[in-house]
Each structure stands twice: as structure tokens, then as C-alpha cells.
Amino acid sequence: MTIPKIVEHKIIQMRKRDGTTQYTLTLPKEYAESLRKEGIDTLYLIFDKGLGAFPKIPGFTEKALTTFMQEHQALQKLFTKTTQTDPINQK
Length: 91
What we know:
Elements: E1 12-15, E2 21-24, H1 29-37, E3 43-47, E4 51-55, H2 62-71, H3 73-79
Antiparallel strand pairs: 1-2, 3-4
């Protein structure tokens, strides 16, 4: 099994004319181009403590993603809020 690519991107904060704030995160160019070639223009985002993105493709629904996360508790922990006693927060 290969490890997926890991990249660091800054969160862009923009103030809108109506005074509200909008936050934007760009996709890695290589990933975005790959999605476009496959005709994919929508992502499912999962977030709490962590953030993940999955392409919205036929047969891969929000329910399927939820089921997948429930069946893989180690992965689920990466995306959920933790407490000071959780090993992921210990240094």
C-alpha cells in the first residue's frame, strides 16, 4: 500500500463587501487537473479537527463515505476532535 501525497497549503482569508469573512483553500494543481480530466467538479469534504476531501463520483455517496468512516475507526479519529489525553495530541 502506498502513502498518499501530503501537502501543506495556507488558508486564505478574504473580507467580503458585506463585512463577512470567507475562507478559501486551494487544491494542489496536480490533483485538480486529474479531477478535471475525469469530469469531476465536486468534492465531499469531511471535517471536525481534521479535513479531508473525496471526489463525488457515481456510486460514492455521502452515506457511503459515512459508512466507510464508521468502519475505519483509526481513520475516523484523524478527523474528529480530540482531548488532551488522546495520544494524537501528546508530544
